[in-house]
Amino acid sequence: MSVLKHIASKNSNYGDAIEYLMFQHNEITGKPILDEQGRMQLRTEYYIDGINCDPMSFDLECEKVNALYHKNKNYDEIKSHHYIISFDPKDSTENGLTGEKAQALGLEYARKNFPGHQALVVTHTDGHNESGNIHVHIVINIIRKNDVPKEEFMERGCDAKAGYKHHMTKQLLKYLQKSLMEMCDKEGLHQVDLLSPAPQKITQKEYWANRRGQENLNQTNEEIRKDGLTPATEVFQTQKQYIRDAIDDSLSKSDSLETFKSLLFENHQITMHESRGRFSYNHPDRQKPITSRSLGSHYSKEYILSNLGAEKTKEVVHDYCKDPIQILYIKSELRLVVDLQTCVKAQQSQAYAEKVKITNLQQMARTIIYVEEHQYDTKELLQEDLQSVSDKCTMLHQQRQTLQTELTNLNKQIHYTGVYFANKSTFIEMLKSGNKAAFRQNHLKEISAYEEAREYLKSLYSDSKIPDMKKLKYEKALLSNELVSLKQELAAARNLQKELQTVHGNVTAILSSDTILKSKQQEAEL
User: Fold this and answer.
1) CA geometry: angle 316, 322, 324, nearest 5 deg
2) How far is CA 170 from the centre of its chain?
3) Is residue 99 a contact partner of residue 47, using CB atoms and an 8 Å limit?
4) Beta-carbon neighbour count of residue 72 at 10 Å?
5) Nearest to 199 by CA among 163, 248, 234
6) In sequence order, what DSSP letters do the residues of 242-307 get, joined into one string?
7) Contact 268/323 with Cβ under 8 angstroms?
8) Cα distance between residue 3 and residue 87, in whole Å
9) Cα–Cα distance list, 292 to 200, 262, 301, 303 (Å)
10) What residue spans of 433-468 are helical by DSSP H?
11) CA 317 to CA 367: how far, in whole Å?
């Protein structure tokens, strides 16, 4: 998946950006890596271009524009904006993404979304922690150099005029994320929905805090081992991650909000508060609470309540006689009726048993409304629909697995096709070389990759021509779209299956209780 990061910089020395992007730096400390002579070392592979400036004089030209418009004179002003587009590591192997192609995409993205600005566009083919993901850095001077036509994403009239600052807002960030998603979809690259809230919201600050903390912990543990002792822990956790893990652990064991709060405090010493409809959590080593918004969408009030057992906060009870339209919204509120004879908690607590009885009556009423709405005259009709939906779920699941296998094989084929064409010229050079053995030894990696890809493609296309990359990517796009549609259809079928299972269970409970009641009445009459 491709992600977009944004960093606002108040550093008035624009040369630091060029230095960082061209030379090797320590990821933890941010300091340059020096050779034996104390000189900075160039990065192994990078691509650099400038927009509305020469990349090697980016710093001087930015300072010249600032002086022309008498801007960026104060220390606390933002001087530049740094955007980072990180591509999925699988794009380089499955979709033929190279440093040159990523640089071209970065230039296209910068020209489209930052028109009129001086921009430094640099692509690195290495990733954080040697992950190998290709990523593009776009550094723009906050002052626009040239007048440009007003675009739809520009919120103010002055956003298109020279001498005015780049105006960063939430709306613009959403537009930039959408633009990146469209670009990746167009190029057939891996992509996720950047506009949806992240399940775990890990900021740049937290990421680097975790990296530094882990490195310090490793050094400390090494010293402990030298003394013949065993370290207490091998994994460093930020306070936010500690809270996330604690919430995940407590939520999996809770069937009510009170139980959830109790487990958080008893097992992890974390207290939970609610303010203005949102949850916040107090870490045992800090005074200020951490909000659920800063942790991610899976730690919000709505998510936690929806993943608890039976108990929730105040439930809205509708008067369906006064407002019949509310019947349309009861489907998602259907719950299984609780059997009081097998509920241990209900047998131990009379108050809880009374509460369960009231809840059962509500669920029975909703079930009856549902049955009348869908005209289930007999229990057999309900069972037939449930069986039909279950069979459909099984069929769709099998179709999804088949499509997933086809897509996996196609991705493998795309990978080998890309490797084949990327290294074919090197193999041809070897054939033309006077000393083939020496040439092979010097280019062993490329030639071996070419021969492996050639053998794989021969097994698929022994008597036919190898299709080009465009055709394969078109087939992949069709398969991907079909798979997405199938997943949506399967999700809808599973929701309906779960709904009918709940209704069927409640109908069975209602009919059983009705039979028992009639038998007791007959006994009383006798």
Assistant:
1) 80
2) 18
3) yes
4) 21
5) 248
6) HHHHHHHHHHHT-SSHHHHHHHHHHHH--EEEEETTEEEEE-TT-SS-EEHHHH-GGGSHHHHHHT
7) no
8) 7
9) 10, 18, 8, 10
10) 436-442, 444-460
11) 15
Alpha carbon distances (Å) from 170 to 82, 138, 175, 286, 475:
16, 19, 9, 30, 36
As a whole number of Å, the CA-based R_g of the chain is 31
Q: Which of 181, 191, 502 is nearest to 371 (CA)?
A: 502
**C-alpha atoms less than 13 angstroms from C-alpha of 20 in its C-beta half-sphere:** 18
Q: Which amino acid is at 358?
A: I
List of long-range contacts for 469-477, beta carbons under 8 Å, 24+ apart: 469/96, 469/414, 469/417, 469/418, 469/421, 472/410, 472/413, 472/414, 472/417, 473/95, 473/188, 473/414, 475/410, 476/188, 476/407, 476/410, 476/411, 476/414, 477/188
d(CA 5, CA 203): 9
Identify the residue with better confidence: 21 or 516: 21
Length of the chain in terms of residues written? 526
Separation of alpha carbons 313 and 340, rounded Å: 22
- Tell me the per-residue pLDDT of 452-508, one tens digit each, with 9 for 90 and over: 988 888 888 877 777 778 888 878 888 888 888 888 888 888 888 888 888 888 777
Contacts of 435 (CB under 8 A, 6+ apart): none
Cβ atoms of residues 353 and 346 within 8 Å = yes
Query: What DSSP string describes 126-137?
Result: --GGG----EEE
pLDDT at 262: 86
* 39 vs 358, residue with greater confidence: 39
What is the β-pairing status of strands 271-275 and 290-291? unpaired
pTM, entire model:
0.51
| End-to-end CA gap in the chain | 73
What is the C-alpha separation between 301 and 327, in angstroms, rounded? Answer: 26
SS3 48: strand
CB atoms within 10 A of CB 121: 28
User: What is the spatial distance between Cα 416 and Cα 409, in angstroms, rounded to a whole number?
Assistant: 11
| Largest Cα span, the chain | 111
Q: Are 362 and 473 in contact (CB under 8 A)?
A: no
DSSP 5: E
Average the pLDDT over 505-512 and give the result. Answer: 75
Q: Is the pLDDT of residue 320 over 80?
A: no
Q: In the numeric block, which tokens belong to residue 495? A: 């929701």
Compute the distance between CA of residue 113 and CA of residue 177 in angstroms, rounded to an integer. 11
For 334, the token pair is 């259907």
Asked if 327 and 369 touch (Cβ cutoff 8 Å), the reply is: yes
Q: Is residue 285 within 8 Å of 274, Cβ to Cβ?
A: no
Confidence of residue 57 (pLDDT cuts 50, 70, 90): very high
Six-digit token pair at 314? 């105040």
d(CA 468, CA 477) in angstroms, rounded, equals: 15
C-beta separation of 508 from 449 below 8 A: no
